[in-house]
Amino acid sequence: MNIESFFKLSYGLYAIGSQLEGKKAGYIANTAFQVTSTPAQIAISCHKNNFTSKIIAESGFFSISVLHKDAGADLIGKFGYQSSANIDKFSGFKHTISENGAPILQEDCLAWFECKLVKEIDLGSHILFIGELLACEVINTEQEPLTYSYYREKRKGLSPKNAPTYIESAHIENKQEKPETETKGKQYKCSVCGYVYDESAGDHKHGIPGGTSFENLPEDWICPVCGVEKEDFYQL
Ligand code: FE
Description:
- By secondary structure, the chain is mainly beta.
- The chain is about 10% helix and about 35% strand.
- It is built from four helices and twelve strands; from the N terminus they run ββββαβαββββααβββ.
- It has helices spanning about 50-60, 75-80, 150-155, 170, and strands spanning about 15-20, 25-30, 30-35, 40-45, 60-65, 95, 105, 110-120, 125-140, 185-190, 195-200, 235.
- The strands form three sheets. A seven-stranded antiparallel beta sheet has the order 2-1-5-8-9-4-3. A three-stranded antiparallel beta sheet has the order 11-10-12, with no helix packed on it.
- The protein is globular, with a radius of gyration of 18 Å.
- Residues about 170-180 have low confidence and may be disordered.
- Bound molecules: fe (iii) ion.
- Fe (iii) ion binds near residues 193, 195, 223, 225 and 228.
């Protein structure tokens, strides 16, 4: 069995949104796909441990925003690697709220859909939510959609553990190429999201100047993309 086969499956990347009693929730999905045309229905797969799955099941509505190729790492990190139980992921990002209460991301994306939940299928670790289309809109015609292969191969991103397509990094970390950057500094890779800390470049988001060795990063330094701590990095 060749695990690389899974990387030949093609997906997009989407920001899912839902809200219940004022609590917004969302996550990054790659498994979002149209399953019927009349009526139009779209299915999404969500891990049972994912806070958003509870919000979708109870509210009965969810949104899907199609991310574009240059969607910010901060958005992907926040939506993909943190929990809506602790933070409002939509805060700081342009979004609207539908009549049914679903938050809909309106930045770093090309189009959005709003769906009414019509069926749930228990898949063991995940739930397949099937929604009937209520509304949809195109908001950006300039850029291309972000595909999972582009995210993985060009942006060096990895799936979080709750993703349907998650594969243990031990299976793939030795097969991933180093980022296409010309540097002299040592590089350390985040095992969660794939972000690479380059000693010669530093971390501008956190005010770390270029030339700062990984060892000299403050103890409370965290990954600027997904928020994990230094111990989750390994040297390339
Ligand atoms: Fe990270």
